[in-house]
Amino acid sequence: MTAHAGGDGDDGASDPSGAAGAASEPGISGAASNPGGPVAPSEPGGSADCLFCRIVAGAEPASIVHADDAVVAFLDAVPVNPGHVLVVPRVHASGLVDLPVDVGAAVWRVAHRIAAFMRSDPAWSEGVNLHLSDGAVADQSVGHVHLHVIPRFKDDGLRIVQDRDPARPSRDELDAVAARLSRDLTKAASSS
């Protein structure tokens, strides 16, 4: 799948501040400052080469929307729409396989809170996309897990499309894949 919009989905790598318009956005107070005080350094395992670890550590500027012990949320420097937020764990995790389940739940909780607020106020959005790319072939552009909260408006230019016509599998084919995935999930859970 490919996302098409005015921005390039750069996740802030070119300008991590995301400061454009942040202070004047209604509804989320303190968007241009850190509402939770100074952002503490990343957990062990963070990397000086990781843009998001540097943001979490306070070594790079960011327009912080939320910060707590597990998660930091800040504006994307290349937003699809104003208020486009990246929710990142403080602990460095390159992908979902590296992310502790409780930290993943914390990322989701914060994204849910932000998205639910945006949906409750039409000035912020008419809809919301939550998006996470895991791995290079999924177009993950920064090697630190991050969940996009993208406020949407009619005709905003973002389209999530497949580059091919998808085949429509039969119910038997779907059931076979579901059985295989369920079996493998059960096997993985019992070995951990």
Automatic annotation (TrEMBL):
* Catalytic residue list: H146
Region: Disordered, residue numbers: 1-43
Q: What are the recorded GO MF terms, alphabetically?
A: catalytic activity
Query: Locations of Low complexity compositional bias?
Result: 14-33
UniProt cross-references to Pfam families, sorted A to Z: HIT (PF01230)
Q: Where do we find the motif Histidine triad motif here?
A: 144-148
HIT domain span: 51-159
- GO biological process terms, semicolon-separated: nucleotide metabolic process
Designated name of the protein: HIT domain-containing protein
| Organism from which the protein derives | Georgenia subflava
